[in-house]
Write a structure and sequence with these properties.
The structure holds 2 protein chains of 2 kinds. By secondary structure, chain A is of the alpha/beta class. Chain A contains 23 helices and 29 strands. In chain B, the strands form 2 sheets. In chain B, strands 6-7-8-3-9-10 form a 6-stranded mixed beta sheet, sandwiched between helices. A 4-stranded antiparallel beta sheet of chain B has the order 2-1-4-5, covered by helices on one side. The interface between A and B is medium-sized, with 16 and 17 residues.
Amino acid sequence: MTDRPDVERCDTFPKLLLYNAGRRGDRPAVREKDYGIWQSWTWGTVADEVRALACGLAALGFKPGDMLVIAGDNRPQLYWAMVAAQTLGGVPVPVYQDSVAAEIQYVVEHVGARFAVVEDQEQVDKLLEVKDRCPTLEHIIFKNPRGLRHYDQPFVHAYAEVQEQGRGFDADNPDFFESAVARGKGADLAIILYTSGTTGRAKGVMLSFDNVIVTARNGIELEGLTENEEVLAYLPMAWVGDNLFSFAQSYVGGFCVSCPESGDTVLTDLREIGVTYFFAPPRIFENILTQVMIRIEDAGWLKRRMFDYFMGHARRVGTEILDGRPVALTDRLLYGIGRWLVYEPLKNVLGFSRIRLAYTAGEAIGPDIFNFYRSLGMNVKQLYGSTEASIFITIQPDGQVKPDTVGVPAKEVEIRIADDGEVLFRSPGVFMGYFKNDQATRETKTGDGWVHTGDAGFFDADGHLKIIDRAKDVGKVKDNTMFAPKYLENKLKFFPYIKEAVTFGDGRDYVAAFVNIDLEAVGDWAERRNMAYSGYTDLAGQEPVYDLIQECVEKVNRDLAGEPRLADSQIKRFLILHKELDADDGEFTRTRKVRRAIVAEKYADLIDALYSDKDHCPIEAEVTFEDGRTGIINADLRIWQAPLSDSQAEAAA
Amino acid sequence: MTTARKFGDVLLDVEGISISFGGVKALDRVSFDVKEHEILAIIGPNGAGKSSMLNCINGFYHPQEGMITFKGVPRHQMRPHEAAVQGIARTFQNIALFKGMSTLDNIMTGRNLKMKKNFLWQALYFGPARAEEMEHRAAVENVIDFLEIEAIRKTPVGRLPYGLQKRVELGRALAAEPDMLLLDEPMAGMNLEEKQDMCRFILDVNDEFGTTIVLIEHDMSVVMDISDRVVVLDYGRKIADGSPDEVRANQDVIDAYLGVSHD
């Protein structure tokens, strides 16, 4: 590209906007589906819209340093409001559109916002509800006037009216906009994103233009994105990923962003747009796959056979072909036929015909789901990131994608593993600090720019980062081997027969596990073997079931043996619990996270038995029934020894 | 609601309506009026004559006595399509949609009366007919946007859950751009959330388009919350007519509808 020096001089979004308007003024910058039709705005018209809004805000008294709270679904007008605020030297602060009034109040108060630009009546009502408690809030601007006709408060304005006022202001002060754009610098604060911390109040992450723009540019260069990409902006604007993928990269790369009609129509809109670059959390990939499988079950015999046959073939060779590894010619030919008959039609139905690159992040994605998409020829990659990093920390490089790692450090990112296993990083995207929270900033960011992620991980032999657990949950087994309970438990839970697992090992000589079988899967397995059982407790105590689970544990141990750092955290002894862990008994949180302390206390006898040489343990447990009554379950649990794999032998093999 | 809404003149005047089927007197000299922009609820126990009343207004039934005046024009015998031409649209207690057609097409049928081009023009889909179709499609999209049913635009109505079908039916009535909307038990069989949604849409329709609404409803809480005025029928006679609070305090209504209190 010959224009690189020009675009690289643009160090703020308002400058990039003017650059794009000059260079590709007639190309679409943003689309929104409204009244059933995709409405488009070119870079040229977007620049006009932003100019009118920025001038309108200035006419209302918006000053450099002012905060602009933004609330609503992904709408072009709300993205423009971000740029308008940045033009004026102010800072946009997007909030989650489904926040309750009190959460919005917290943000408005905390940043001391004078202005808010919101989508519709719902958001206006929330702000009006808390306005008395937010003395700084002076103006509320809404995009969609429906239902707001009777709101006669002088501080509530329609977006279009503010723009109209802005056009008048612009006519009187023709140089105002350009000089405001020119004043911005890359080091300025560009945006504040509130992260919903698991503990305490949300923290406002301050990112500068340099943070976001350099990170966006590095991502574009790494993946070779062009101005022809199509993306769908459907994740909350308050989330850093949306800000990077649907805003920053679009401005830097000059490609078009489409806003869906509503939250319910995302999958339809995805198909209509035909995205080429897509981000989704694992849950969405999982939902799409489930829908496919259900529809295939309903399809005719021939289609079902064809699907099964070719998907089987894709599972064998699809990912190898995608990664450019050598594959036999006959397999390639068969894959080509499958592409014509199954893969491409399927991708077309899902709206992924044109997809070149898809990212997933946020939590561990099941290897089956991940490989399903990759075997179809979709380049789905995992990344690891955080708001504090302007998202990118690691990305899986093309051709070297392994389902259980998150890839290698992104461009210009340095990673260090602390002694306790915690992952630290340093990059151009590292945030400026937490807004009005120096203490939290000091706890997270070291003086020389390293940021604590709170996640524990390590690099595998190929230099790929593997995230295993939250650092505070990671312990040590005997001779200082790392013990990551969630990592082991996830490995166990990837087996369909295991519903839940709790592992112990911190400060012990070896690792031991509680297992909950999946009643449906194991019940089905038992029926096919003509095994009789009366219920969960009975089934869980049967010897063939122990055999079945032992095989799973063995496989996990074999996996672990291949990872030198975790080889000594193999599961030595396990038992199958006589009852399913239940949130009603306090063993889970309502979001199904195991409460380790409560489980450890409640089943102390069982844990002691796991760390003795007994091969069974009687147990009496109190359970709470659905109607609130309590009862006692008696059982005599077997404890089995699982064979350990030899890490040396495995490494040699 | 932030400001008090203003009612206009009398839009519909019902005077001394009686109708009987064989020996059963479904309506017995019922009189009331509906003002512009008003939301009027007609309530009453089963068999009180609520649906008969709606059917009379709609021109489905022809009352044997009495007079109905709509927009100042009295009428005796009128057919439903004439009522529709005059600006009355309705929904039904048992959903009456074309199950095999999409949401979009069902709502489009509501525009039927507004289509001026004849069948041949429409079939050719050429020139003015095409422009007309686009204009109607825009009106339908407006309704779809209003009722937030974008996601089911192309779904056959038969595959939709009940609550959404009700919403589509409301959409079809709205597509006719009526002056008065008759809703026959709009919330029957819905769960709480669907009811809340429907209430909001009824209030929004009234607020946004200024449509006068007459509705029949069983769910008392709903009626009391959204109506400006309530008419109570019992055995074909009107026993009360007033604001929700007045009706709630009326002893006849308590006895007839809410049950006689035993303390």
